[in-house]
Amino acid sequence: MKKKYYLLTSLLALGMGVANAQYKGHIFIDSNGNGQFDSGERTVEHAVVSDGYQVLKTDANGQFEIPENPAARFVFVTAPAGFKPAKSHFLKVSPDRKEYSIGLIEDTSQNPDVLNFIQITDTETYLYGPWIENVRKYAANQKSSLIMHTGDICYEPGMRFHAQQVNSQLMGLPVYYAVGNHDLVKGEYGEKLFEDLFGPTYYSFDAGPAHFVVTPMWGGDYKPSYTRDQVIAWLKKDLELKDKNKPVIFINHDFDIGPDFILKGKTEEIDLKKYKLKAWLFGHWHNNYSFVNASSGVRVISTNAPNKGGIDHAVGQFLHIKVTQDGVEDVAPKYSNLFDHIQLIDPALQSTEKGKIPFRAQVYDSNRDVASVHVRVLDSKGNQVAYAPFKRLSDWSWETEPLMNVSNKTCTAFIEVNYNDGTQATKKETFGVNDKANQLQLKWTGNLGGNTWKVSPLLVEGLVLGATFDDGGNGKSQIVALDEKSGKTKWTFSTANSIKQKLRYENGIVAATDVAGNAYAVDAKTGKLIWKKELSQGRLPSYVTAGAIYEGVYYTGYGSYLTALDLKTGQELWRNQDWNGGEAMPGEIIVTKDQLFTGANWNSLFAHDRKTGKLMWKKNEDGLRFRSGGVAVVGNEVYATGLNTVFVLDRLSGNVLRKKTLDYDFKVMATPVISGEQLLLSTSDKGIVALDKNTLNEKWNFTTGEALIYTSSYSSPDQNKLVATVEAAPQQVGTDFVFGASDGFLYRLDPQGKLKYKINLGAPILAEVLVKDDLLYVTDFAGNVYSFQH
């Protein structure tokens, strides 16, 4: 009898007699903004509503009835294009709730043809930082329609902070969240706190011309209650009801799907390509990486956090994304923490032999885009002697036509900046005759046509070579050759994706590897492709390690595609079989006569036999697993850093010969430098430090200024501590040292670490300076290449 009774009550609960066995309500236009469905308010017909299991449309009266499901926790609406939630897109299921009516309001920022929105990710903080204002103000200035946070908010303090400080009300536009692995926390089930603060873990909405689908991370720090099959079953129903003409923008914290874009569970699967999938947005890897899947045309977009440097030393940024009916049209990275950054490159540095010279300036703002820049020059009596517009060279750099001769003149320049929001800013600079002792003279400046990362100038065949990166994946990555005497562009070679690390050269051939793991050999004189190898086959994470050339062999790649290639033919000589995992280090591979040294972040420092590829040893203790930079090899000793410890290792065995922990953060891309008895180390927090290479005792420290951008892993301005990052290794000029820093200055120090001079170039300098005879070649983050005579 008991079994029959329970069966009867179950059937009744499914609708055979229980009046309140549905989630009922209306989707309505909340004209008075009170969150209640009031008499006279318009309803929305054919709006899509779900409880996470069933998906249906409202009727002609904007009404819906969803059968009650004991597993359901929310009722949520897919906000139609042109609308946004008045309060929230969801309501929690409760036995006390009689009605599940959800209000919408019109969103005038949405355009049916074009949508602007902001992507942020992996903020992982409970501290209020300038990035929040940057995102809020930039979104308002660009008339963005929404902010999408793609997960890792993170842990309980971070999640509560974001719910209070980075919400739709305070940011001024809808803020949507996805679940990351660190958002699955201790509780009744992994996503419980996320649900309490942000609502359902999977949902959809329409905005402008596109349909957005948000799905959760499949696993994390604590086990979630949802399953892939559960989410896929809902997703099938959701996508069947979407407008067939709308592109799908898929959101997940990770890119956890095969190249066929078929999402699979244990019993359920769905081919997302059948539903006009055009983009997949994610985070998780703490890097900046975007590409287009060759077979499907799907745009895959990852960004680093806006408030700190990435694991691979990616720049802290957020993305401004533009979507049309055809998918993603443009992705524009925006670097955080800069307000009215305006810097004139001292005109008195330039040679006056040619008479009139151009003026150059670096201009950047995290809250606004720059519309135009002008310079007004007054002489010592206050008379205007020049006024001219600048033309844009990159997202930082501006240049005028040849303007005036500055020889024997003391003048004042006013750099006048007009922003796209109608605001203005002016920077005053005074300059005169370049009579500073030991100062440099600028011979020429060239520009690579895009930003550049850790690619030092490479001088070959009468050319200065560089390369650009394109974190938006807009097809702007290239290797560029400038004339050694003038800085004029001689040739360009387009690459499939960003070149972020050093170019290498031998016997007329330039070798490089892009972030997608494509290796290239290019003729140095002409820029013509000799061969190309697709080493990684598009696998994550992205590749940011500098390769090396030794006796006609190009060594590149990491993990399972660490490879030795014949430089002339591209033939594979060996491939690593001994380790995989972690993330590619942003430092450089070092080769000697018989060994190859490389590493992976979150993994180890590795020593291989150079000729066979066989692993000889690996070290991952005491911070060595955090690989940012390469190593220096002198005789039988290997000098390496890990977190805040310096190591001297035996070259053949990897045994620790000596080590020392210091009050410095060594998470930088620079390789240690040995100069006589000194060991010079770049740091992420205190500039350059010199140690006695035998005792590892500190000899001197030179601290640079605050970084303009944040690249070193987890470095951030939010701690209110100086972040004096130097990603480049110092280079020797006579007995002195010269290097660029993230504060935008070029420095020259004497052997005791005393400053001889510094030049403000106004943009971060991540790459090493090239020294040739009496010339210095410097490349900055903005893609400018400078030729200085010293």
Automatic annotation (TrEMBL):
Entry keywords, A to Z: Signal
Pfam families, per database record: Metallophos (PF00149), MetallophosN (PF16371), PQQ_2 (PF13360)
Name of this protein: PQQ-binding-like beta-propeller repeat protein
Residue ranges constituting the Calcineurin-like phosphoesterase N-terminal domain according to the UniProt record: 35-88
Start and end residues of each Pyrrolo-quinoline quinone repeat domain: 476-619
Keyword Signal: yes
First and last residue of the signal peptide: 1-21
SUPFAM superfamilies: Metallo-dependent phosphatases, Quinoprotein alcohol dehydrogenase-like
Record domain Calcineurin-like phosphoesterase: where: 128-287
